[in-house]
Write a structure and sequence with these properties.
Blueprint (H helix, E strand, L loop, with lengths): L16 E5 L28 H11 L6 E5 L9 H9 L6 E6 L4 H11 L3 E5 L5 H8 L4 H13 L5 E7 L8 H10 L3 E6 L17 H11 L3 E3 L10 E5 L5 E5 L12 E4 L4 E3 L8 E2 H6 L4 H13 L19 H4 L2
Parallel strand pairs: 1-2, 1-10, 2-3, 3-4, 4-5, 5-6, 6-9
Antiparallel strand pairs: 7-8, 8-9, 10-11, 11-12
Helix pairs in contact: 1-2, 1-9, 2-3, 3-5
Length: 333
C-alpha cells in the first residue's frame, strides 16, 4: 500500500488498529472504569448502528486498518453482537477481530461469537477471590467470569488473554495466584497499570502498582522470566516467558513505561466519535458524517485529520497532562 493511502501521523506512526466501542453500558461497576451510581448512559438512538459501524470499517480498511477490537462498556450487553462480528469479518482487508469483555455473559455467547468470526478474546480478571471482586466491581459475579473463561476454552478460542488492573493496596495478593491460574490453564496473563480514567476521579499516582514490581513478585514466587519475542512492535504489552517454557506473562505499563512512540491505535466511541488516543481531549464526529449524508471520502478525510492531529504521547507524568473529561467506559477499553 502506498504511503499516501495509509493513516500516518506526523511522527510516522502507521495506524492499522481500530478499537470500536459498541456500548457504554456495563453489568458491573469497576471503580477504575465507571461510577457506582447515577450513570447517564447514552440513549440507544445516539449509538452507532451495526450498519454504521460496518460502513466506517469499510472506509478505513482500504486505508490500512486490518485489526479490530470490540470493546465497551461491556460489549456483550449489546444485543446480537455476533451479527456485527460476521459483518466485519466479511470486509476485505480485515484479518483479525478481537473482543475485550468482563466475561460475565461469555459462557452463553462464546460459541456464537466464535462461529461469527471472532478470532481472539481478552477477559478482565483482576482477582480470584470473591471479596476482592466485589470490592473492585462493586457487584458479584466472579463465578460467572470463571465460567466464561472455561467456555472460551471449551469452544476453541486458541489465544485467551486475562487482563488484570494492578492497584496498589488492593491487588498485590492477587498477582501470584492470577499468574499461576493463567499458566496452569495455558492462557496469557497481562497486568495493566492503573490509569487516570476512573469516572469518580479518585486516581492517585501512588496507587499505581508498576509492571516492574509485579514482575519481581512473580519471579520470586514462580520462577525467572525472560523477554519474549515481540512479533508486533506496536503492541502495548512487554511480554515475558517463563524460563522453564511453561507460559507467558505481559505487562502494560502506560504510566511507568509509556509506549506511545509505537502506538498504531485509533478508537471509535459507541456514539461515533473518533479518538486518536485513549487520553485525547479532542474528538472527531464520525456520526455527523455518517448520518448527515457525507461521502465515504469525507469520512476517510475525517479519519486522516484525527490521525494527523495525534500528539507524541499522553503525558501522564507531565505537568501539562490534562485528564480526559470522559471515563474509560465512555471511551472504550
Amino acid at each position: 500500500m502506498a504511503d499516501s493511502a495509509r493513516l500516518i501521523d506526523p511522527l510516522g506512526r502507521i495506524h492499522t488498529n481500530l478499537r470500536i466501542s459498541v456500548t457504554d453500558r456495563c453489568n458491573i461497576r469497576c471503580f477504575y472504569c465507571m461510577p457506582d451510581e447515577n450513570i447517564r448512559f447514552k440513549p440507544r438512538h445516539e449509538l452507532l448502528s451495526f450498519e454504521e459501524i460496518e460502513r466506517f470499517v469499510r472506509v478505513v480498511a482500504p486505508l490500512g486498518v486490518n485489526k479490530l477490537r470490540l470493546t465497551g462498556g461491556e460489549p456483550l450487553v449489546r444485543a446480537d453482537l455476533p451479527a456485527l462480528i460476521a459483518k466485519l469479518a466479511s470486509i476485505d482487508g480485515i484479518r483479525d477481530i478481537a473482543l475485550t469483555t468482563n466475561g460475565i455473559l461469555l459462557a452463553e455467547q462464546a460459541q456464537a461469537l466464535k462461529d461469527a468470526g471472532l478470532a481472539r478474546v481478552n477477559i478482565s480478571l483482576d482477582t480470584l477471590t470473591e471479596e476482592t471482586f466485589r470490592r473492585i466491581a462493586r457487584r458479584e459475579g466472579l463465578d460467572r467470569v470463571l465460567a466464561g473463561i472455561a467456555a472460551a476454552k471449551r469452544v476453541g478460542f486458541e489465544q485467551i488473554r486475562l487482563n488484570a488492573v494492578a492497584i496498589r493496596g488492593i491487588t498485590e495478593p492477587e498477582i501470584v495466584p492470577l499468574a499461576r491460574f493463567a499458566r496452569d490453564g495455558d492462557m496469557e496473563m497481562r497486568f495493566i497499570e492503573f490509569m487516570p480514567l476512573d469516572a469518580e476521579e479518585q486516581w492517585q499516582h501512588d496507587q499505581v502498582l508498576s509492571g516492574e514490581e509485579i514482575r519481581r513478585q512473580i519471579e520470586a514466587a514462580i520462577g525467572p522470566l525472560e523477554p519474549a519475542p515481540r512479533p508486533d512492535p506496536s503492541q502495548p504489552a512487554s511480554d515475558f516467558q517463563y524460563a522453564d517454557g511453561s507460559g507467558t506473562v505481559g505487562f502494560i505499563n502506560p504510566v511507568s513505561q509509556p509506549f506511545c512512540a509505537d502506538c498504531n491505535r485509533l478508537r471509535l466511541t459507541a456514539e461515533g466519535q473518533i479518538r486518536n488516543c485513549l487520553f485525547s481531549t479532542v474528538e472527531w464526529d464520525a456520526r455527523a458524517v455518517l448520518r448527515g449524508g457525507g461521502s465515504d471520502e469525507e469520512l476517510a478525510q475525517l479519519v486522516r485529520e484525527a490521525v494527523w492531529a495525534k500528539k507524541p504521547g499522553h503525558g501522564i507524568d507531565s505537568s501539562e497532562f490534562i485528564r480526559p473529561q470522559r471515563a474509560m467506559y465512555q471511551i472504550g477499553g
